Amino acid sequence: MVRLIVPFSLLALATPASAQRNTAGCTAATAHRLIVTVRGLRAGGGGVRVQLYDAAGFLEKGRWLARVEASAEGKRTIEVCVPVPRPGTYGIAVRHDANANGKSDGTDGGGFSRDPKLSLLRLKPAFAQVAVPVAAGTSRVAVTMNYRHGLSVGPER
């Protein structure tokens, strides 16, 4: 199990493009990697946590296979490189601590690979809804963030 936790400040890599690139989760020695494009971040700061799961540990506390934290730095889209232990089928969960208070609260957002529809009554999809194949080498996936809007949950408006 890869447990990679790096402070937000060490992961920010400046780029002139609209997408903030974050490759600190991967190194030249990372044989298999998943580039996660996190889009639709609520404007402002805060931190983004990207976690990689297999079916057996999906969304269970401490059962992620890899975890990378990055700064949103006011960007609406960022890219995060997540090391993958081996080719296979995985799920990605993303959390945006929009106000950078280190707690889960009503301003925070979340999203999953394959962008399953979420609601206040169903914030945790099944693994089958988020499962994506990851090949040897470099794979890519996009995640659209969802935030609370009154009594509904969805992308930023």
Automatic annotation (TrEMBL):
Stored Pfam families: DUF2141
Signal sequence range: 1-19
Keywords from the named record: Signal
The keyword Signal is assigned to this record: yes
Record protein name field: DUF2141 domain-containing protein
